[in-house]
Amino acid sequence: MNGGRGMGPERRAFRHSHAGSVRADVDAELRFHLEERIEELMAEGMTRSQAEEEVQRRFGDPARISAELETIDRATLRRRSVAERMQGWARDARYAMRGIAARPGYALIVVLTLALAIGANTAIYSAVQAVLLRPLPVAGLDRLYSVQSDMPSLQLESGGELSVGEVVDLTKRRDLFESFTGFLEGNVTLTQAGEPRRVAITRTVGDFAGVFGIRPLLGRFYAPEDGEPGRPTVAVIGYGFWQEVMGGEPSVLGRTITLDDQSYEVIGVLPPEFRYPRQAQVWTPYVLTERALSPQRRGSYILTGVGRAQPGMTRESLEQQLRLEVSRWAEEWAGVMGMYAAREDGQGGYSLRTMPFVEYLAGQLRLILYVLLGAVSFVLLIACANVASLQLVRTTGRVKEIAVRAALGAGRWPIVRQVMVESLIFAVLGGILGIFIGWATLRVVSRWDVASFAILRDVRLDGAVLAFTAVVAVLAGLLFGIVPAWRASRVEAQATLKEAGGRGTSSGIARHRFLQGAVVAQLALTVVLLLGAGVMLRSLSQLLAVDPGFRAQRVTSLQITPGGTRYASNAARVAMYDVVLQRIDALPGVEAVGITTTLPFSDMIQDSSPFQIVGDAAPIPEGETRHANITVVGGDYFEALGIPLLRGRLFTAADDRDAPQVVIIDEELANRYFPNEDPVGRQIGTAEHPVTIVGVVGSIRQRELAGGLKATRFYPYHQMPWYPWAGLTVRGTLDPATMSAMVRSAIRDVDPELPVFDLTPMQQRIERSVGPQRMAVTVLAGFAALALALAVLGTYGVLSYSTSQRTHELGIRMALGAKPGDVVQMVLRNGILLATAGLVTGMAGYFLLARVIESMIFGVSARDPVAMAAGLSTLIAASLLATWIPARRAARVDPVVALRSE
Amino acid sequence: MTAATTRSAREELDLLRGTLDLLILKALSWGPMHGLAVLRWLEHVTHQRLQVEEGALYPALHRMEQKGWLDAEWGITDKNRKAKYYRLSVSGRRQLRAELSRWERYTEAVALVLSAQGAR
Asked: Does residue A504 surpass a pLDDT of 60?
């Protein structure tokens, strides 16, 4: 039989090595078969065409079969080439691992360097994620906008809150907002079996659940209509509250809780991931009484407004529509409230600003985090340059082996691939270690400096963060791997094999140039970081040097919320305050104690309202309303805080309920509204209810150290007793901890059921207010330090290396009469050149970027000479150190040894 | 072969799908062959009683090559023509053994059924 049973077919073994030959091979195979069959049949007597027909019939459709074979073969080809490629990578990986294991010290240095840089990136990114990207688990976060009131001439403080009436009006604008809400945070006392406890409550107007897309874990969220007076009082509780206070039982729905002696039926429980406002434990409707919607309360800015915009509304269109709304309000409230009217001078009128809610939540942190993100990427670049240099030098050590491979005809790609695989392995190891380092740093830092790093509480290590780290690691690996890989592939086989180390070769020179360039780059980036950190530090110290207007040292403060039936009447509250003040005043070491409705630098609400001056000659033009903060105080509030009295007198016991109404104004109010006269004796309020100004005190900063002062008027609490909350300020000679304990027990003596909370020394409050800035400075300084260390080590490494490469040459020089001093000079010159180049480049870069941090700093310019001098001199000193050691070593070279070295 | 013989031969035994692989493996255990040679060998050994559908052979061969049971090489026949030769690989031999034992177990089971006493 024909067919060859292995009788010496010529073994030309080749596979289908490329896709192009598949069709030809399949055709050839089938053609052979068909031809042989045809010949068989012809041998039996058929004609050619008969045979062809018969063969076709028997075989089936050759076209279809050949197509099928092609498909199979192409798949085979693909699988084989993939398998080959994987084997190639696997081989490289094994080789790389062996190489790493052979030099564990080197590997440790590389991996550690990468881990520090990648870890820093991970840490910053998780903060960015928690604050800027996904601060709340809400769908459609990009459609949420915060709406704030703004009237520059009034200098409305803090977040630009809205009044209740304004929020109600905005909820009606369904054309603008799918849902709108305003809310207010407060504290109440929960009384049930066991200790009374203070509970953070949030009162909402409008569709809170709609805006935030709340899906309760149990039950339901109340509807906007539940805010109407006369409706049953209901509440929704948070997950934490449900677990810790209500026992976490599903039967909680329908139970009532008693807050400030008012019972609320629990109708829903929120899921654990929803926590907004962040401190809130209970949510309840704000009751829209007549009073709340009255004209007097229209100018009382207490609610934070947030709306879910209709799809398609942009920020610009929203602002435009809101402008129209304000002018509508101006008409509606003309004559009753002049605030909305456009001012005659056309400036600084009332307006409603909008801001994406995420931006609003982030606040100052947004800019800070962006800057930190930029800074940390600098750190990564420095680490990559560092490691690239290390890898480059290391590949040089293996140059003989590479030259042999090149000479034997290995293509460029396998060599490049092998070095890249090694780099990627380093990068992956660095990434894994980096995640741990980044995460651990976040935890440690947020525990140790709670004030500055409060935002880190929310930071979590989730899939997105891990994915980010993976991407960063791979990119870093490619970045620092490409240069050594490329250079390795360019090794000139011949020259290298001839002269060991390839010193004089062009690749050697190019390598040298790259190393120097890498050092300059690292130094430049470090300069930028140093200067930035220096300026931020100066800014922080300027901020802390601002005089808040009072003396915070040795003052402790706390909040109490006298709620419930016991303190439902004004008289009861006032009586209690009297007793508390007396008791605390009597404590040893207490110099002064006061009470206030708004503690400075706290989260207590600052009430404010328009006011009139009695006896004004001309009526004030519309739009130029007088507006001031309202703070009710008692006891020795001004003395306790050390606020100076400038004119007139402070409140005394004589200013009680039955005495004529009095008020104390602050300097800001006096300067603004009584510019050329002594305000003492003048009256504000209305002609029917005048209040006499009896004193002028110094102005204080209420919320933040930066920013302007806001006119404030102070009333004695005997005459204005209706605020249901109070803060105490106690000045004493003892340390804050002891004082706090004493004060707390004194209050407990008066009424054990009065919850006391937020017990914080005044100084700490101020420091907390600059928390974000402190965080920025700490982190930037840390980055700058890390960068400096890496850059200095890099400089030292490169200089050492290049010096050692030139040992031969140095030996010749010294043999020819050069003195050690000359050699030192040579090396120093090289080092100084590098440092100067880095410095100049860095400064240029910093000036370009300076604009970015201008908006973040206070009291200094981005080109502050002090900061710059400090930063630059640090770098110069460090560079000199890095240069000095190799220089010394070069000087000690023994010429004989050097000449012999090859 | 005349057309008549072919037809009757085909009536004799139709090839169960799935056993084709086994037959090919066995054929190649005798040594490398090209596709046509495998067909001729099968015809020869079964005395023309077994007719393999010619079109089904080549896909089977290529699939087994993809699975790694066969290695393929190009060679030259006695008539100086280029043909693709198939050879059992190491895993092919293993597969042959496995298929053989499966076939034996199968036929044993069928034989048991057919030889069961009882209804005819």
From this structure: no
Chain B residues near residue A2 by CB distance under 8 angstroms: 36-37, 40, 77-79
Q: Which helix (H) or strand (E) holds A473?
A: helix A463-489
* pTM as predicted: 0.79
User: Which ipTM score applies to this complex?
Assistant: 0.83
The Cα–Cα gap between A158 and A600 comes to: 12
CB contact under 8 A, A32 and B79: no
Convert the pLDDT of each residue in A25-75 to its tens digit: 898 899 899 889 898 888 888 888 888 888 888 887 888 888 999 999 999
Residues of chain B positioned with their CB less than 8 A from the CB of A44: 1
Assess contact for B58 and A28: CB atoms under 8 A.
Answer: no
- Mutate: best of A10, A17, A29, partner B, most B CBs <10 A: A29
- Find the helix or strand (DSSP H, E) in which A634 lies: strand A626-635
pLDDT in tens, A767-826: 888 888 888 899 999 999 999 999 999 999 888 888 887 777 777 777 787 777 787 888
Confidence check: pLDDT of A86 > 80: yes
Query: Poorest-confidence range of A318-332, A384-398, A664-678?
Result: A384-398
> Has residue A453 got a pLDDT over 70?
no
Bridge partners of residue A201, in order along the sequence: A186, A282
Closest CA to A637 of A623, A652, A615: A652
Q: At A258, which amino acid appears?
A: T
Cβ-nearest to A65 among B1, B59, B76 = B59
Instruction: List CB contacts of A696: < 8 A, sequence separation 6 or more.
Output: A645, A646, A647, A648, A664, A665, A666, A667, A670, A679, A680
Q: Is A32 on the interface with B (CB under 8 A)?
A: yes
Which candidate from B36, B63, B85 shows the least CB-CB separation from A33?
Answer: B36
| Residue showing tokens 């079964």 | B46
A646, A694 Cβ separation under 8 angstroms: no
Q: What is the mean pLDDT of residues B27-53?
A: 88
Q: What is the token pair recorded at A6?
A: 């292995």
Question: Distances in Å between the alpha carbon of A56 and those of A24, A26, A244, A696?
Answer: 20, 17, 84, 114
* A353 membership: H or E segment, kind and range: strand A351-356
